[in-house]
Amino acid sequence: MSGHSKWSKVKHQKESTDAAKGKIFTKMASSIIIAVKEGGGIADPASNFRLRLAIEKARSVNMPKENIERAIEKGKGKSGEGSLERVVYEAYGPGKSGLIIEAATDNHQRAAAEVKNTLDRGGGVLASPGSVSYLFKHAGMLIINKDNINIDSAMNLAIEAGGDDIEEMGDKYIIWTDPSKLHQVAEYIGKKGITLTASELIYKPTITTKLSDGEKKQVQNLVSALSDIEDVQKVYTSLDDETNLS
């Protein structure tokens, strides 16, 4: 490979990596801003659990400290920029699968148009409020790697911490809890010296959709396309797999 060709390839790879990283940081910043706003302007993660979760997630993707601090200031309303708001869309995907799409946007019309166009291209359709959400419930989710603890100890830990249920999925244990108890359960587990790989509020499917392998692939592609939209924070599906854990 000539020097010029190698330079061009490396430059292109770096630009692609930087663009992807920038998109992730933008989503993390939006999550932090919303957490501060919905927490009544409280910018102390010790007193605002949603903010603490958002900051932990931002740090997990190596978001710079100054970016995090800037997002917190925006959430407090000191930036002078447009105001972000949380919005939730409901949709049907391939095979009549249910989709919950969480977004944070300062332009509802733009966000709705981008979500609708992406759904149309991916075999989905935007649904009216309430027509899909009944397939889900809001839940607190905590994830522990199996390397850290055995199943019996994990079950006892979940009970002691105040969790509602525990299940095995691949190399993970998932502890489910009421959203209002997520902070309490996470604190208890941390004090026991067990490391959590994730702790967040999600939409958990209560009625799952069985699909063919081809339909599952279509749903996964649609979720990926929706997740690429800058305003979209998270996409949840009614599939009975690990789609909602990523």
UniProtKB/TrEMBL annotation:
Q: Which UniProt keywords apply?
A: Cytoplasm, DNA-binding, Transcription, Transcription regulation
**Where's the TACO1/YebC-like N-terminal domain?**
5-78
Signal peptide boundaries: none
Report the subcellular localization: Cytoplasm
Which Gene Ontology terms describe the biological processes this protein takes part in?
A: regulation of DNA-templated transcription
- List GO terms (cellular component aspect): cytoplasm
Q: Taking every annotated instance into account, which residue ranges of this chain make up the domain TACO1/YebC-like second and third?
A: 85-238
Coiled-coil stretches are none
- Gene Ontology molecular functions: DNA binding
Predominant localisation class: cytoplasm
Q: To which protein family does this belong? A: Belongs to the TACO1 family.
Recorded protein name is Probable transcriptional regulatory protein A2773_02690
